[in-house]
Amino acid sequence: QVQLVESGGGLVQAGGSLRLSCAASGSIFSINNMGWYRQAPGRQRELVARFTSVGNTIYADSVKGRFTISGDNAKKTVYLQMNSLKPEDTAVYYCNTKILGLRWTDYWGQGTQVTVSP
Fold this sequence. Notes:
Helix content: under 10%
Strand content: over 45%
Radius of gyration: 14 Å
Shape: globular
Order of helices and strands: EEEEEEEEEEE
Largest sheet: 7 strands, mixed
Low-confidence stretches: none
Number of strands: 11
Distance between the termini: 40 Å
Mean pLDDT: 96
């Protein structure tokens, strides 16, 4: 079993910055395949940024150049540094990881709210 706990959300003005953290525990041995998704009201959950299975990074086009994903394998923690925030970045941000057992299984954190005011 895997547990993911996010922190760092909040209210910020447009142009500001926030840093999200996601601490993993349980049967997880690497930050590879960990990442961040977000869901705004009335919209589907979408990828923000993640590590691939080999540790490369993937970003949504809408956040490239503004957001940076990083991680610490020893702490089993990933971070999302969000700069130049825009009102359209307002959403609940979820930490995710995918674990391969008999099949791939998604694990999700409880989510953290990010609100960007104009």
